[in-house]
């Protein structure tokens, strides 16, 4: 029993570490992108190795926990949820890596006017705020906080949909901007995807705490927003 | 009015069909000690129901009520009602031998008689007065086939049952129970003395047997309860704390006490 508790707590700590690491990666990717800071972008690229190593460690430890302890009920839900959360966080890390890679590879900084038109910073802030909420929700096992991200994800989706129209109009006006707008469009897609991943994490926290499966149940989830 | 009566009797017979065993307000005392503190429970026919709980919680006492095995315990007294197919088995005129024929029991340690394999399986039939050799042979073969032991012992039916392995002995004891054609089988930790392979064979057997029998099993092995049973009842200090479908109990139990027990945080 002591061993189960100890191993579960170690897994939980690794989960905290993964949240903190991926959040830091996304924050650094934002700074690197907005300030065209290729040094910071390089740091994000290097740190990706740590994210991948932690991902593998959590995966392996979850497998061992299941094999050695045969968990049931809340212990089982915890380990199943953590495995999926870990997978989603690693993808968040991948997106931070992708955003930073552009900075390393692209020479010209993005014009502030373009960022403003696409509500880029607002979108980034929203994605980071969702990651903050979900980190707190995980740390405090608080499903109310987890549910907060569902509403914020709708903001990301709205900006993402609107961006297509704006980019199309801007490129028609000045075709020379196409490269920059395409780059921005790709990053916007990544941020929108991060919103989806954080939403998945929220569903997993709710599954672990309340044994309720929200996946593919948009209506019910919306009611609780 | 007569129509209403007919409806009621249909509902009544439906309940009897659905629930093989029922307990209403059951209390058990050993002298002044109350071992079972008022339990109501309905056990479905052709399902496996597992009783779990820490030692001394009353699960074995409760199990043994269904074939009146507690009657021999000094100071035993019961209040309430236990029914099988709707019939009260604690009525004064009940034939306890007939009851135990209907409700067979398998114990923790295999307990074959110091007789041949054939005699062990035929024993119950013989004490019922059946002498027809051909019938006995057919019944022994059928029972041994039901427990998947026939192929292993068919060439040595006259050998001593005590020469069989522990797992084989336990399957023999189940065959002995089946030979008298019960409708309910009670199992009190039937695999706790067996190795994993023999345990797996018994568990497969339980799965097969539930098609024809109602099975109630007491087990301390949580994985076994989750593997073999359709319903699980958690007992604690003489009370039935939670009783639900096994898949519910082992994924999301209602009561914190149940959760603590099945996750090993309490005992």
UniProtKB/TrEMBL annotation, chain A:
The keyword Cytoplasm applies. It is found in: Cytoplasm. Residues 17-102, 121-205 form the PhoU domain. Coiled coil: none annotated. It comes from the Bacteria. One of its GO terms (cellular component) is cytoplasm. Transmembrane segments: none annotated. GO terms for biological process: intracellular phosphate ion homeostasis; negative regulation of phosphate metabolic process; phosphate ion transport. Belongs to the PhoU family. Plays a role in the regulation of phosphate uptake. This is Phosphate-specific transport system accessory protein PhoU. The lineage of its organism: Bacteria, Pseudomonadati, Bacteroidota, Flavobacteriia, Flavobacteriales.
Automatic annotation (TrEMBL), chain B:
Its main location: membrane. SUPFAM superfamilies: P-loop containing nucleoside triphosphate hydrolases. CDD domains: ABC_PstB_phosphate_transporter. It is a peripheral membrane protein. One of its GO terms (cellular component) is plasma membrane. Gene3D superfamilies: P-loop containing nucleotide triphosphate hydrolases. It is found in: Cell inner membrane. This is Phosphate import ATP-binding protein PstB. It comes from Salinimicrobium marinum. The lineage of its organism: Bacteria, Pseudomonadati, Bacteroidota, Flavobacteriia, Flavobacteriales. The gene is pstB.
